[in-house]
């Protein structure tokens, strides 16, 4: 993997990631851009025990632009996008970031602090009409290497406690740009859902291994190979939810071996294609990497990927209404065993 | 308030609630209905620490029927709905319940138990085209009395640990029936978001009172009267979020005095109308009553209502994407102070 960092017109960093043999990356960002906005503000709710990022500047972010004005396509003579030239995979700091290093000390008071951290956009492919599921395994492997490199780099940034690579896919899930892309957040705290797992691991440090061995012998496995098992968890919250567990304890993406990285790509592609085959429709989904926090539980937390869809049937979505959004209790209308069966039956078995 | 309980054709209970002077409620449910489905199954995720209700029968529930076939309108000679005759306010057991008493003992094993409890539908008005905001104060007062009566009744049911009256409003939030209605859940456990508050109250039993007194002197108050204050919380997670606090500690709706009930109706109507006036559009919202659990924290938990919208601007919704859904961390694109100002400015001041 070759990386080529450049600076965008407003000072933000952009990095091209390439395979051996790819052409050198050149070109300058010639746009006139205003300076990036200041960091968001974090506010703590002691009763809920969570931080909220108030990022009012994000109201102005680019919203479903026409494909001729896609900010994630390579720039053309007609339209100068966020990426000055051709690319294979590229990451850059979000122009409307939820977290950044442009903090000011003005508003430090109890329960309020600046949204220090990092928010990056990652384009998986220059093909505007493509999708992650249509990448070839070699490009998925490159994407995984980029996640590893950015996890390492962001873990070293001041204040970052959790690095979170993710993809939101589909307008139904609120994606404002249709070009295939993901994001990477560097949170300046451990998010509640990870903290909850850490708490549990304190009393049961081997929980991930135990869960994997139980699931491997279960009817909810969707696909597996030597290094990974993809299964629908027994208490799935979403109609279609698949967790990808590596077969050994390791804290984060950088810790994956060459073999584990090679093995991930085809398995993930297989399950993504099952998602789209399910209803013969591009399935809206969230793909979320759960990594160990930068400074905690490195020996007990196990890296894994959670992939879930909000579609429960053609024309029907799972919404987070009062029970989920206010009480935190999920009602799942599809049984996990049925979801696993439907995903297994959607395509020929993975080999 | 007068209540008239009857049985529906499949044995479910329906209760008419009326004001003095309303006609007697009669009429029989003459439909042929299959027996109601068995209870859902609860599954526990030890790492997340939450129960999920797997309710596969709900996939078949009525989905956006034409208004001539609304199951919540009073029955007519042409269409027999869930409600046999005319009504003012009515509650009945959900035909596709997330929780019920139709449990079987088949599947009891570690981390799995039957979805014992209760799920009721509540029609606020027979007017199919109406909305809660268009009720008059007298009918809101009746609705509040019904919430109180059902909270008392459901609190006494075996296994129910938390009674949760709520309204989901708007297709954007997943409402499958447009007739103005809410629901009441009787959960057989304390939901995670309430449990989190209980945990905090252990170390700070006066937290609710402290928060109220701080918010009362703050720029985030939207409307208030002698018994209630409606404010946008400092760490709001949603673009437009208003909490309604009573001015004294009390555990649940039944504990409200006559005066507090009378005072709630106009205040709540005022804020609901501000919601709709904000963008001159019916705002999709969730209204969620946080009550003390049936058997815990009755002296420290304070009843309150949380009202929040997923609309952040005309044509733009707040989606729960990866940060919210996977990590539990909210990014709010509207500052709480700005939201309060917008709501105050949407209509003349509340008096």
What does this 3D model show about the protein?
2 copies of one chain form a homodimer. The first copy, chain A, is built from 6 helices and 17 strands. With 351 residues, chain A is of the alpha+beta class. In chain A, the strands form 3 sheets. In chain A, strands 1-2-5-7-9-8-13-14-12-11-10 form an 11-stranded antiparallel β-sheet, with helices on both faces. In chain A, strands 4-3-6 form a 3-stranded antiparallel β-sheet, with no helix packed on it. A two-stranded antiparallel sheet of chain A has the order 15-16. Chain A is globular, with a radius of gyration of 20 Å. Chains A and B meet through β3, β4, β8, β9 and α2 of A and β3, β4, β8, β9 and α2 of B. Chains A, B: Keywords: Carbohydrate metabolism, Galactose metabolism, Metal-binding, Nucleotidyltransferase, Transferase, Zinc.
- Give the number of helices of chain A: 6
> How many DSSP-defined strands of chain A?
17
| First-residue to last-residue Cα separation of chain A | 27 Å
- Spatial sequence of strands, sheet with the most strands of chain A: 1-2-5-7-9-8-13-14-12-11-10
Shape of chain A: globular
Keywords (chains A, B): Carbohydrate metabolism, Galactose metabolism, Metal-binding, Nucleotidyltransferase, Transferase, Zinc
GO molecular function, one term (chains A, B): nucleotidyltransferase activity
Cofactor (chains A, B): Zn(2+)
EC number (chains A, B): 2.7.7.12
